[in-house]
Amino acid sequence: MPKLIKNGQLVDDNAQVLILDETQAPEELSLPEGPVFVPFAVWQAHKGQLSGRPGLGVWLDSHEDVAELAEDLGEISGVALNFPKFTDGRSYSAAALLRTRYGFKGEIRAIGDVLRDQFFFMQRCGFDTIQPKAGKYSDAQLEAALASLQDFSTPYQAAVDQPAPLFRRAQRAA
Question: What is the pTM of this model?
Fold first, then answer.
């Protein structure tokens, strides 16, 4: 079973991320049992049947707008945001919007081409689960990446995980 980083721990991934190929239509799809992240198109096609299903999440590609999912956030347990390539940073903004503007408290998962160098910044933007591509990292490499998330004791900048910048949090003698 593949591993991922979730809430600061290395855990087994029991959720499936459903990916459609060119021949599959969202309307005709049958879903597997258990926790699953479905593409946004599948959610739109089956919203009535899927609403409130335990363990159901929706994944958005980087070009899809989280605002289109905003009204449905109470019906799903998680949102996965795809990084089609490591240079595409639109999913950072989407995660921040989900946490700040839409107040989403569920799981936000980074999927796709996520690299170890990005893990810290993903957490700062609101991601609580980081799922690298299968086979990209060994368990030992993920353990080392998890330990490296503690390299920075106090971030200077404001972000989703710490809304006040350091100069606002620092106590200084008068």
Answer: 0.89
